[in-house]
Amino acid sequence: MDTLTPPHGGGQPLLHQKGAETQAFGTLKQLPIGLGHDTRMYACQRLNRVLADTQILYSLYKKHHWLMRGATFYSLHLMLDKHAEAQLAIVDALAERVQSLGGVAVADPRHVGELTSIPRPPDGVEPVPVMLSRLLDAHERILIDARDAAARIAAEGDEGSADLLVSDVIRTGEAQVWFLAEHLVDTPLVRG
């Protein structure tokens, strides 16, 4: 054996690989989970919409976390990061649910941008109350869609997806809305 030629495999990464798409977005592969094709297809479509919006909400939380200003900077900076972490966990749960139904989870940020219902914010910094209001608006859009999706998906017989929407998306979203909204109450810092 030539000592200059590595053995088969040799530890060299096979770089710059190309290949055909193995499953197109919007299609399903068959999995033995006891749910019909139409039910799974509908659930994947609805979950992907919520997933796209949740990815945008996560990004808004991170943006606003970085751009906080003023007397409440520290507490809001920490809270927004904590909320972002919770939203990131929801992103993962939604994506994994779509995959477990045999679908393809929306993942590329450019594709997410095409599917989201959440308006794009300005690229720069906004006043703190405007940033918080923007987060509240995004939450409300997601909550309205998630409630409708959960009810319709449950009616189709997919209790697993409905439970994910209610237990994770809706309950977490409602709690985060409460925390955000309380920061928009006009309360003096010094006098009562």
UniProtKB/TrEMBL annotation:
Source organism of this protein record: Streptomyces amritsarensis
Source domain of life: Bacteria
Name by which UniProt lists this protein: DNA starvation/stationary phase protection protein
Any Pfam family the entry gives: Ferritin
InterPro entries given in the database record: DPS_DNA-bd (IPR002177), DPS_DNA-bd_CS (IPR023188), Ferritin-like (IPR012347), Ferritin-like_SF (IPR009078), Ferritin_DPS_dom (IPR008331)
Protein family according to the UniProt entry: Belongs to the Dps family.
Stretches assigned to the Ferritin/DPS domain: 45-189
Entry-linked CDD domains: DPS (cd01043)
Gene3D superfamilies: 1.20.1260.10
